[in-house]
Every structure is written in structure tokens, then in C-alpha cells.
Design brief:
458 residues, alpha/beta, eight-stranded mixed sheet, four-stranded antiparallel sheet, 10 helices, globular
Length: 458
């Protein structure tokens, strides 16, 4: 190649496998498709996901206020079942995966919690193999279900898609990934209390904050199995939405000033995670396109990623492209010839498989990647039509093999150029006034960290 950079307008170009990216010094690097990650994505099973969803539905209701004493019905039985499924995965991990029910008490709130109640998140923790790597990645789905009346703890609430699909994805991810080794820690969690007020996510986010976890990313999967929408009659299992906040929920005055001065409204850490997932999907999951949704969530709805965002963590929500409100939060009934209720028959399990594989590719690539570069800056002390970037190597973990400089026009939603360098400074023949930049660390196998947007340096 004669050009000193390799440009791709869409991250889908990475799906070709090996793309040669000469750096500014003409040294060659490649974007690699990791054969181990590819194999893991292919091990995700639509049949297994369907078995899991049907297993969850068999408890009739998983309402957070339902019985915990019945062995065949209610949230207590569902939690124990999910724990047993995760323990099957843990048995293949060589002792690195542990499974627990993280119990917590939710106080009566006068709204959706009429009296104090004990809840529990079912968690499988796959411990990282590097004792010096303190990074944590979380993937979640909520195990509780509901029907029309959010306080009805006894009526049937099958919850096949909302959120049996996300819960099944989490358990399936634990099954496939338990055998593999990652330097960082991955937590697979079936969260309780979402429908009553995001209580399980609040508990876990507070715990992560109090225990000072180095939580790098949280992926929330809530309704990832419906491919046919009512009203519009759209059927599509080739696209999935990722919701991400723009302006951070805990933005400080200093952060706000920096955002305003650089025009960084679209470059929060959650937006970087969403873009990362889009690129990993194009690389590893055929026939699935990520649609970036620049909202924290949908109108009138919320999700378990929100408490993590509010605690200052990087978090996103994965959600199906087309929703069907005839099945969602509906009492089981037949009315005017329409069968209402969230049953497995309405779930597209091939679609769930692809969305689960997307989570796997993202988690695996992140957990194998180096730490992100530190003190990333763009020199703004001189008027120049070039761009000088500086950064420091990560202080922890394995030293990166090199770095990718990401670049896009200010109006572009996705990174458009990816330039490989091996040092910790570079000067690009592009004006810093006309583009956004970021820096990723990358190892010899091609696993990239999350990008870091530079701060102005005087």
C-alpha cells in the first residue's frame, strides 16, 4: 500500500479478517480476528438459549415479590435454578468461576415495595488469571418478570423475552466463556428487582463503588429476542440497538467545561463502549448490525445500566430493534383474537443467539486487551494544521505491542481511520480542528482496549 494510513468508513470492513494498516512510519500492523473468540461466538447455541428461556418461563412468575418458598414457582425457585445452571458452567472452569446469590434487603418505598423484602442477584464470577490485573467487566440480564399490574406477584408473568432473553444470554455466556482464560475478571449476573425499581442493579453498582472495583464496562441486556413489532409489522433480526448516555450522569464542572470546549458531547466513555461493540459485532457476528441509539434509554422505560451510569461507571443497554407491546408487560389472555403474553413462542432464538455472540465478542476482546493508555493529550499550544498526540503506556498489565490512533470527522458517528503506531507520541498530517481523535492500546494478538479521547495540552 502506498498510503500511510488505512481508512475504513464503516467498522464492517474489519469483518474481512486481516486488514493491513501501515503506520505513519510504514511499519505494518493488522487488525486480527482472534480464532479463539470466533470459535466461542460459534459455540453460542440458539437451542441452548431456548432451553434456558423455557426453563425460566416454567416458574410461572418471577415477580420480585413472589414466593421464595415454593420449589417450582416464583422468584426463589427461579434464582436457585439460575444458580444451578451457572454452577454447571463453573464446573468446567478449573476452579476459576464461583457462583453466589448476592442477597440484599430492599426497604419499603410506598410505591412498588409495600414492605421490606430480601432480594438476590445470581452472580457467576470468572476470576482473571493475572493477579495484577484488577479490571472487572459485568454483563447482566434481569431475572424478574411482571405482567400489566406491576404489583401483581401471583398472576402468570412468563417473561420469556422481558427479560428471559437477557437472562438466558448471561447464563449462556457463562457456559461458553468459563473454559477460557482471561487476565481480567468477568462477572455474569442475573439481576433481580428491575421491574420494581432497578434495585438489583442499584445494589451491585453501590457495592462496586464501595469496594472500589475497577469496573471498566457494564453491558446490560434487556429484551434481546423479539424481531417482530406490532403496529408497524416490521420483522428484522439483523439489527440491534445499543443505548448509551452522551453527557455523563455524574459530570463534574471540570468535565462539563472540557466537553463544551472540545465539542465532546458525543464522546463519553459509554459512547466509546457502544462504538467498540459495533466494531466487534462487524468483526465476529455475521448478519447483525449494531444501531447506535444516542439516548440513555427509551421513553417511559429504564434499565439496569442506569444505576451504573449514575455511579460514574461506563455502561450501555442492549435492546432489540423492534418491540412488540402485545407481549410486553401484558396479562396472559386472548382478546379480539390476539394472544397477549410474553411466551417463548414469540421469541426469535436465532436473534438471541446473534445478540449473545455480540456480547461475547465484546467481553472477550476487552478482557484480553491491555489496559487503556493513560494521560492521553492533544497538543494545542501552537496554531498548526497538524495534530500532535501524546500519551503514556498503561501503568498496569502487560505492555501493549502498540497503539491505534482513531480518527473521524466531527459529524461522523463512527471512527473512520485507524492508524497503528508503536511509540507514545505521533504527529498526524490532519488538522486537530477538523477531526476527533482517540487512542487505543493493542496487544500482539490484536485485542484493543477501549479508546481514550485526548485532553488539550498547552
Amino acid at each position: 500500500m502506498s498510503s500511510s494510513v488505512f481508512s475504513f468508513a464503516r467498522a464492517g470492513a474489519a469483518a474481512l479478517g486481516l486488514l493491513f494498516l501501515p503506520s505513519l512510519t510504514q511499519a505494518q500492523a493488522i487488525i486480527k480476528t482472534d480464532p479463539v473468540i470466533k470459535t466461542m461466538t460459534e459455540q453460542v447455541s440458539a437451542q441452548e438459549l431456548e432451553r434456558l428461556v423455557r426453563g425460566l418461563v416454567s416458574f410461572e412468575t418471577r415477580h420480585s415479590l413472589s414466593t421464595v418458598k415454593d420449589k417450582k414457582k416464583g422468584i426463589g425457585a427461579a434464582r436457585n435454578w439460575a444458580q444451578a445452571e451457572m454452577e454447571k458452567a463453573a464446573a468446567t472452569s478449573g476452579g476459576r468461576m464461583t457462583v453466589t446469590q448476592d442477597r440484599y434487603t430492599v426497604k419499603a418505598d410506598g410505591r412498588r415495595i409495600p414492605q421490606d423484602v430480601e432480594m438476590a442477584n445470581v452472580m457467576a464470577t470468572l476470576k482473571g488469571t493475572d493477579p495484577n490485573d484488577d479490571r472487572v467487566f459485568i454483563v447482566s440480564g434481569h431475572i424478574d418478570s411482571r405482567n400489566t399490574d406491576v404489583m401483581d406477584a401471583k398472576g402468570k408473568a412468563p417473561g420469556a423475552n422481558d427479560d428471559g432473553s437477557g437472562t438466558a444470554a448471561v447464563i449462556e455466556l457463562a457456559r461458553v466463556m468459563a473454559r477460557q482464560q482471561f487476565p481480567a475478571t468477568i462477572i455474569f449476573v442475573c439481576v433481580q428487582g428491575e421491574e420494581q425499581g432497578l434495585y438489583g442493579a442499584k445494589h451491585l453498582a453501590e457495592r462496586a463503588k464501595q469496594e472500589n472495583w475497577n469496573l471498566v464496562a457494564m453491558l446490560n441486556n434487556d429484551m434481546i429476542g423479539n424481531s417482530f413489532s406490532d403496529e408497524t409489522n416490521l420483522k428484522d433480526n439483523t439489527r440491534v440497538r445499543i443505548f448509551s448516555e452522551g453527557v455523563p450522569a455524574v459530570e463534574t464542572p471540570e468535565m462539563a467545561a472540557l466537553r463544551k470546549s472540545t465539542g465532546g458531547e458525543n464522546d463519553s466513555r459509554s459512547r466509546q463502549l457502544a462504538r467498540y461493540m459495533k466494531e466487534m459485532t462487524s468483526r465476529y457476528v455475521p448478519q447483525l448490525e449494531v444501531v447506535l441509539n444516542y439516548r440513555t434509554d427509551r421513553f417511559l422505560r429504564g434499565g439496569d445500566h442506569t444505576p451504573f451510569s449514575q455511579a460514574g461507571f461506563t455502561a450501555i443497554r442492549v435492546c432489540e430493534m423492534n418491540e412488540n407491546y402485545q407481549y410486553q408487560h401484558q396479562n396472559v389472555r386472548t382478546e379480539n383474537g390476539i394472544n397477549y403474553g410474553d411466551f417463548p413462542e414469540h421469541v426469535d432464538f436465532e436473534y438471541v443467539r446473534k445478540n449473545t455472540a455480540m456480547n461475547l465478542a465484546t467481553l472477550a476482546n476487552l478482557a484480553l486487551a491491555p489496559y487503556s493508555p493513560e494521560e492521553v493529550g492533544v497538543v494545542t499550544s501552537n496554531l498548526t494544521n497538524k495534530t500532535e498526540l501524546r500519551w503514556k503506556a498503561p501503568a498496569k498489565g502487560e505492555r501493549p505491542a502498540g497503539y491505534y490512533i482513531l480518527m473521524r470527522e466531527t459529524s461522523s458517528p463512527m471512527w473512520e481511520k485507524k492508524i497503528y503506531v508503536e511509540g507514545t507520541t505521533t504527529t498526524l498530517p490532519y488538522s486537530k480542528d477538523n477531526y476527533f481523535f482517540a487512542v487505543q492500546a493493542v496487544d500482539a494478538e490484536g485485542h484493543e482496549s477501549l479508546p481514550v479521547v485526548p485532553r488539550p495540552l498547552r
